[in-house]
Structure formats: C-alpha cells, structure tokens
Specification:
It is a single chain. With about 425 residues, the chain is of the alpha/beta class. The chain has 3 domains: about 5-50, no CATH class; about 80-325, Nucleoside phosphorylase/phosphoribosyltransferase catalytic domain (Pyrimidine Nucleoside Phosphorylase, Chain A, domain 2, 3-Layer(aba) Sandwich), CATH 3.40.1030.10; about 335-420, Aldehyde Oxidoreductase, domain 3 (Alpha-Beta Complex). The chain contains 17 helices and 12 strands. The strands form 4 sheets. It has a 4-stranded mixed beta sheet with strand order 1-4-5-12, with helices on both faces.
Length: about 425
C-alpha cells in the first residue's frame, strides 16, 4: 500500500519510488489524499534528487490519467506542438491552421502568459469575441468541421498538474526538469495525441538560458513522451531575441496576420513554423520526412489555405466572420505610441529578452499577479534585431502604452535591454538542434 510519507522519504534519500507509487502520488494530488505540505516536500525532494527516466514516465502518465483523457475517432492523425515559452513567439497561431490544411487534426491546448513570457490564449483573446474555453462537445464539433482549435485546458484535464503547478510556484521548485516535463506532457497527452513536436527555447528570453539546460529539458521531454506512447521530437530554437518583431498580444496577432495573408512575411516566424510543422507531419505519417513536411507547411501558408482555415477557427470560437479580411480594423490599439531611441552608435550585439518581456508585462500586457486583467493593445513593435546597425536617437522599437508615464518607463526598460557594440555580431541560428 502506497503512502505519501514513504514516497517522499525515498526520493529525499536518493532512491527511486516504484512506478505504482508515483502513479498513486499523482492520483492523490487530484483526489486530495496528498496534502499541500506533502506535495511541496515531494516537489523539493524531486528538485534536489531527481527521478529516473522510468519514474518520470510514471509520474507523467499518472498525472495524465488523474482526469479525463480524450479519445478521438477522426480520419487523420491527432497532433500538437508545445513551446517552452519566449518573447514574440506566436508560431502556434500559424502552425495550427497550417497543420490542419495538411491533413492533421490539432486540438491545441495552450496556456496564458507565465512570468516574462507571453501566452497563446492571451494573444487570441485580443481578437474580439474569441473564446478559449470550449466544452468538450464544442471542441469535438470544431475538430470535425475546422480540424483545429486553440483552447484552454478544461478543469477535468490533468487535475493533478493544476494542483502541483500551484504548489511548485510557491515552494521554489519551478526549475525541476522532472516536474517541468511531467507538467507539460500530462496536459498535452491528456488531449489524446498521436504525435507531438516540442519547441524548446534557449537564450535570454527563455526559461532555459543555456544550451546545456535546454538540451537536458528537450531530452527529458522527448524520452518521457515516447515512453508514454506518443511519437515525439524536439527542436531547440533560439530565444536570444524576440522571435517576432513585436511583443504584446494584439501586436503579435498583427504580425501573424501579416505573415498568414502574405502582406509582410516575418522570415523568422515563418522558418520556425515550417521547421516545427515539418517535424510533426513526418512523425504523424503525413509526410515522407521532415523536409517533405516543411514543403507541405510552406505551401499551406503560401497558398492562403492556412489563412482561410485560421479564419474558420476564429469564427468557430466566437470571433468576427470577416477577421481575415479586416483584421486591421478588428484589433485594439493603444492610445500612446512613442519611439525608443538608441543611446549610442553601433550594432545590436545582444538583447535581454526577459527584460523586454517584463517591460510588456509592466505595460499591462501580462500579469504581475494571478487574476490580473491583461490589456491586449499594449506592447512593443518594430523591435530591432541582433546584427542591425543603429545610431544614437535611431528607434530601437515603438512602445504602445495606455499612458505617457507607462510609455516612458517602458522606454527606459527597453534601452537597458539592448547592448550596442562597435562590431557586428555573429547572428544566432534559429534552429540549433533536433532531439528525437
């Protein structure tokens, strides 16, 4: 018979609980059989001592099975993508409809902004009327008709993760690779996926700042997902600067729409979206290999088919029927716009992505406390990238704010986030490594 105290003690002393013990613990998190104190002690023990690969799989599948696990009967593979979070990372909005056009079904369960990073749900809710909370019946109907949806996790999906996540946040155990892995995958796998691609961000705007930490997380995620029976690979991608040239909810949707409709294609967004889509199409058997898959995703974007599918998703989730045609009129804009002048001549040699993300949060584009209301109109646009030549007084970006006071504070934060040097730097590779 399993009990919380003996499981905690075993991890604390460097041992490994049995898979049955870890599945019991996950069920206890959901049922309340495990107390908050025991959950916090377990999280700290795992952070300090770690779990084996078998233990990670058992904890992840136990958390997955702590609530409802979706099953599908659809004429194509059910797939998804997960990003570990960054600045200006709006690839989900491009990828979900592109994958749907290519024959996949995409029940994308997404999150809100966390810390300095933006959230996919917050971006979509910049679209008037867009609903991210769907009933299971509505989700199933949309999957059959539109083939993609981007939604919040329902309360009965991986409830053990919801409980442990809140405890990790207040117990100083957020950084545990084992617990990050179980948290991410328990929610994703509860959606009934056949294939999953992971976008593990690395750099100043990511949670994983170094290549070593990013690779450790990527390997843990891939091995655990595969151990749980889901075809999975990961790409480690650059987050040493924002992926888009905008950071902020409506501003990122604008960049997505420009890319989807071909009015102004962001090459970095396009390249990462195509790379991730190529991986998952190959995993799901919809492409002969990743290169073939990349070509199919690119065609879905170039032809306008992905834009049309995005429009149908917007309508299905409560947004305007004419959004794809009239998005510039439908998205909110901030009343104050000010340029951020560079402080010296030279080249942009580095960008502190976390500082930029926090600048957006303080403008009102993210949450300082749980429950804070997000203003979709604020943020940063036209961000200068690494390698760009600049000069004193030349704009590094544009601040979109509610008040001039908030804009001035953001200007100072952005200026402190940019490093300008005399020589052009080596620009980082967007896709740094494949794991899988």
């Amino acid at each position: 018979m399993s009990d919380a105290r003996s499981i905690i003690a075993r991890v604390r002393d460097g041992g490994q609980p049995s898979p049955d013990d870890l599945r019991w613990f996950a069920a206890g998190l959901a049922s309340g059989a495990v107390t908050d104190a025991q959950a916090g002690a377990f999280a700290m023990a795992v952070l300090l001592k770690g779990l084996s690969e078998e233990g990670r799989v058992a904890l992840t599948t136990g958390m997955r099975d702590s609530g409802r696990v979706l099953e599908w009967d659809l004429p194509g593979p059910v797939v998804d993508k997960h990003s570990t979070g960054g600045i200006g990372d709006c690839t989900s909005l491009l990828l979900a409809p592109a994958l749907a056009v290519c024959g996949a079904y995409v029940p994308m369960i997404s999150g809100r902004g966390l810390g300095h990073t933006g959230g996919t749900l917050d971006k979509l809710e910049a679209i008037p009327g867009f609903r991210t909370g769907l009933t299971e019946g509505a989700l199933r109907k949309q999957m059959a008709e539109v083939h993609c949806a981007i939604v919040a996790a329902s309360a009965d999906l991986a409830p053990a993760d919801r409980r442990l996540y809140a405890i990790r946040d207040v117990s100083g155990t957020v950084e545990s690779v084992d617990l990050i892995t179980a948290s991410i995958l328990s929610k994703k796998l509860a959606a009934g996926l056949e294939a999953l691609v992971l976008d593990v961000k690395c750099g100043s705007g990511a949670f994983m700042k170094t290549p070593e930490r990013a690779e450790a997380l990527a390997r843990a995620l891939v091995k655990t997902a595969q151990g749980a029976g889901c075809m999975t690979s990961a790409l480690i991608t650059d987050m040493s600067q924002p992926l888009a040239t905008a950071a902020g909810n409506a501003l990122e949707v604008i960049e997505v729409m420009e890319t989807l409709t071909g009015t102004s294609v962001n090459a970095a967004l396009w390249d990462v979206t195509v790379a991730l889509g190529g991986e998952v199409l190959a995993l799901a058997g919809l492409a002969s290999d990743a290169s073939d898959g990349e070509g199919r995703i690119a065609q879905a974007l170039e032809s306008g088919a992905a834009a049309e599918c995005f429009g149908r998703m917007v309508v299905a989730q409560g947004g305007p029927a004419d959004f794809v045609d009239r998005w510039p009129d439908r998205l909110p804009s901030a009343p104050v716009m000010l340029e951020v002048p560079a402080l010296s001549d030279g080249y942009v040699t580095a960008v502190d992505g976390e500082r930029l993300g926090l600048a957006v949060v303080h403008l009102g584009g993210g949450r300082l406390r749980e429950g804070d209301k997000v203003n979709p109109s604020v943020g940063l646009s036209d961000l200068a990238g690494i390698g760009e030549e600049t000069g004193a007084g030349v704009p590094l970006c544009m601040v979109h704010a509610l008040t001039e006071e908030a804009a001035r504070a953001a200007i100072r934060a952005v200026q402190s986030a940019y490093v300008i040097g005399p020589e052009p730097p080596v620009e980082p590779d967007l896709v740094q490594k494949r794991i899988g």
